[in-house]
Design brief:
With 449 residues, this protein is mostly helical. The chain is built from 18 helices and no strands.
Length: 449
């Protein structure tokens, strides 16, 4: 919110031009080895140490490749400012690699309080540096500094929290299967990344930095609920499900609880983004970003789609079906890229609409394929979604009626508070009392405390 008012769309667009391409390299930053460390039933210090040095080697290679790519990006975008931006961002690969295995150990040990403290601290330090440099007139370099400070702070925090010092790398210690698992995870991430970021490259090339900056802000805002919930719940869920591989009954119970929580939290958020997109953009980013409101509205359905399909990857990885997740990614990629190309002549709005439509069409096939032959059936997923969905539809209708009746006469903040308050209040009342879910959430709260 602060940086959007201190910087221009072009500043964000310049960084987006680089990260849309070099972001491919970030998929290899841990080579999938952090998930291999977490998923493994038993792992030795020698194995983790060897994986640490592999991560460091990968980070150094990625940093070198990113630096070598800088002149090509300048030629591709016809933008000379990208040269040193790309070179500076290359350092982030090494900073991140140094903390991959330490963070994985914390997650494996389910030390989520420590992980949360580290994450919040890195965000605060990074944002403080970014805002400070933006106030000082550094422009897009404020975003570059923020992107480097965050992984540096995270790595330092992970080293301090684990107090683990890696030993020398060794051969013949049984990491072959872990490397294969990590390779599948990395390839899956690569395919998905290409699918979800090709539109940014296309917009930057054919519509310029301003258009990409506008699209990028709308995309980032829509991504916040999905990424935040996935990070908060996904880390816990994957660790827990991996520990329950040999207990199918408990694994099914835990997965369905987590799935229900994700869906019940994202449904009203999706509706709020769609119904109140203009007010949200004006409040969060300011009037110069109002072109992002339509993009924000068009992309809102993807919040729900990802809440439906992302948890299925936790299930597949935890029970050793990573290859199926990779096959699903190969289904997603060409479909959404075709949708981008269809929408590209209509600019950022057309691309956003095409992306959202493609993901909606893919959601059911992805879910059916993911759970085929597992302990989770279609009826289980439908039961987890049914009551939150009914509650959301009723709450959305009521909130829309109130917003249209009283909203136009109110200033921005009261109008937004009224609409969101009615929506979320009605939703909670419907879900807990009309749908009879109060006992379920109270039991879950007692388990957490």
């Amino acid at each position: 919110m602060v940086l959007a008012r201190l910087l221009d769309p072009e500043d964000f667009g310049l960084i987006g031009m680089v990260t849309a391409v070099t972001g491919v390299f970030s998929l290899f930053k841990d080579a999938g080895l952090s998930m291999a460390t977490i998923q493994r039933a038993a792992i030795s210090n020698e194995q983790v140490s060897t994986l640490f040095w592999i991560n460091m080697l990968v980070g150094a290679i990625l940093g070198f490749l990113s630096t070598a790519l800088a002149p090509l990006l300048v030629l591709f975008y016809h933008e000379p400012r990208l040269l040193w931006v790309t070179v500076a961002l290359a350092l982030g690969f090494v900073l991140n690699a140094a903390g991959v295995q330490h963070a994985a150990l914390l997650q494996r040990e389910m030390r989520f309080v420590a992980l949360s403290v580290i994450e919040v601290a890195s965000q605060l330090v990074g944002v403080a540096v970014g805002i400070g440099m933006a106030v000082g007139g550094s422009g897009y370099w404020a975003l570059v500094a923020m992107a480097l400070v965050m992984p540096a702070t995270t790595t330092v925090g992970a080293w301090l929290a684990t107090a683990w010092v890696p030993g020398a790398p060794r051969r013949g210690i049984g990491i072959g299967s872990m490397m294969r698992f990590g390779g599948i995870v990395t390839l899956n991430g690569l395919v998905v990344y290409v699918a979800y970021n090709t539109e940014k490259v296309l917009l930057g090339r054919f519509w310029g930095a301003d258009a990409l900056g506008i699209y990028g802000r709308g995309y980032q805002l829509v991504s916040i609920p999905t990424e935040s919930l996935s990070a908060a719940v996904g880390g816990v869920a994957f660790s827990a499900l991996s520990r329950l591989q040999g207990e199918p009954g408990r694994l099914k119970q835990y997965f369905l609880k987590g799935y229900s929580i994700i869906v019940s939290m994202t449904l009203p958020i999706t509706v709020a983004c769609a119904l109140f997109s203009d007010d949200l953009i004006l409040f969060l980013l300011g009037p110069k970003w109002m072109d992002a409101a339509v993009i924000f509205r068009f992309l809102a359905p993807t919040i729900l789609v990802f809440s439906l399909v992302n948890p299925l990857s936790w299930l597949l990885y935890s029970i050793g079906l990573a290859e199926r997740s990779l096959k699903i990614a190969f289904l997603i990629a060409p479909t959404v890229i075709a949708a981008y190309i269809i929408g590209l002549p209509f600019g950022p709005n057309g691309v956003a609409l095409g992306y959202s439509a493609a993901m909606i069409l893919l959601s059911l096939p992805i879910a059916a394929w993911a759970i085929h032959g597992t302990i989770i059936g279609p009826r289980d997923l439908l039961q987890a979604v049914r009551k939150p969905l009914i509650s959301t539809v009723a709450a959305a209708a009521f909130a829309l009626a109130v917003h249209q009746g009283f909203g136009p006469s109110l200033p921005l903040v009261p109008r937004l508070a009224l609409g969101c308050g009615i929506l979320f209040g009605t939703y909670v009342w419907m879900l807990l009392y009309v749908m009879g879910q109060k006992a379920f959430y109270l039991d879950l709260l007692r388990e957490l405390t």
